[in-house]
What does this fold into?
Amino acid sequence: MTRPARDPHDTGRHDWTCKREGVRSCKVRDFDWRCASCYFVTMPTYPLLFEPLFFAKVWGGRALEHLGKPLPARENIGESWELADLASTSSGGAGGGAARSIIANGPLQGRTLNDAVAIWKTDLLGATPATPSGCFPLLVKFLDARENLSVQVHPSPAYARTHTGAHLKTESWYILHAEPGAVIYKGIRPGVSRDAFATHARANSPDIVKDMIALPAIPGECHNLPSGTVHALGAGVLVAEVQTPSDTTFRLYDWGRTGRELHTEPALECSDFSPAPAAARLGAGQSSATLVTTEFYTINELSLRAGESHTVAGSGLRPVVIIMLSGGARLESPSGMTSLMLGSTCLVPANLSAGSRVIAESAARLLVVPVGG
Ligand SMILES: [Zn+2]
It folds into this structure.
């Protein structure tokens, strides 16, 4: 493709002539796409912020308002998708619909994260591959479980290999808040046989809950749930969730609620009976630690005092996602300064990650997530 030359008669920053199409183009708001693609090829990367996507859920509540989220009135919001680029609904199980984050800042404001992937390519992704459908390979959500979420499992690696349309979903929960006595369910108790578990599942019996490991939900702890781990978020827990971008979910038990489909047989086929990884957390007095390492992403936590700074620790080869859990900070990158407000998620393009650092403006806690293996 021929890159457009700057027209010397143009005064506006966004005025270009598209050599390929021979058209004079364009104000950012009224370009046609092909010219826009030429124009955008020349646009330098910058850290992206996003509009949240809210999802009402039977188990949701209003607690996401504490993270500064402008929730729609009178709805129980279970999920706020902070960074999402899902092309389509999964073909099996209880998948959600297609969902793409809208960019909230800079010249790409109003366009989708998927547009940024298409425009910036390896400048954004570095050596990390996009998904097979050309999407950004990470999904970030906040979840507010006012009630128990369904007991569920995502495809095991063996299942995903043999079922096209079923995608692995490894997810990690960072617990932000928990009501007294709140628990999460993570994995199947040692000693529970496959037969007993399957009998409870097929009978839609509450006994399945006793088959699972219930762990106290402790703010600051981070749990990794490899795809195939049977799990449920318990009532009264608020989490930040980092996951691979799939929404293939097989529901095993819905706590006696009716109206939502169960997917007992594929769920049983996927259920992993080996122990799930232990929780991790920042040690007392530590300001940074790696909490989770997977082949898809790494989760680091930073706890900074006001005025303290920390590098984003990018190699320049991978994009880095920053999730603000408390306090406020600013990001200084080679492209300038970006404000990081409570509850916001920022995508630092790979080609800016090595030269970027976070400076806390008040006591701040954040997750720094390099994307890729
Ligand atoms: Zn799940």
